């Protein structure tokens, strides 16, 4: 009996016409045409040493880029204009924060920093928190910089 019911439902469903739930613009996204796919060749990152964790970075590497090349050079100048030298020194960008049992690190202006590290001559990382870093410049009060 259930078998006959399934067959009848299948036959009844084949005679019914259902309207599409997608608009014509949405249906265009559902059409896949492999001829129109752009293939972008990706380059692998050059790894100079094997690092199991960012916290395993040798002390000599702290305060500079891990690969040895500045992060600013890896971004094209057309998409990311570099501000003048005075504005670049004043602008502090925090792009990454990692906190775990091994310690706290942050990437500030493209450099791996820990608490109490000094950068740009007179700026010091006072504290690293979940989503912000306290920076203190010589002779000034500390300020919190949020992660971008």
Give an overview of the whole structure:
This protein is of the alpha+beta class. It has one domain. The protein is built from 3 helices and 7 strands. It has helices at 2-15, 24-30, 85-90, and strands at residues 94-100, 103-108, 111-114, 118-119, 123-128, 132-137, 143-146. The chain has a 4-stranded antiparallel sheet with strand order 4-5-6-7, with no helix packed on it. A 3-stranded antiparallel sheet has the order 1-2-3, with no helix packed on it. β4 (118-119) and β5 form a beta hairpin. It is elongated. The model has no long low-confidence stretch (mean pLDDT 75).
Biggest sheet strand line-up: 4-5-6-7
Number of continuous helical runs: 3
Shape: elongated
Query: How many strands appear in the DSSP assignment?
Result: 7
The amount of beta strand, in percent, is 15-25%
- Over all CA atoms, what is the radius of gyration? 27 Å
Let me know the average pLDDT: 75
Poorly predicted ranges = none
Number of domains: 1
What are the secondary-structure elements, in order, as H or E? HHHEEEEEEE
Q: Biggest sheet: strands, sense, closure?
A: 4 strands, antiparallel
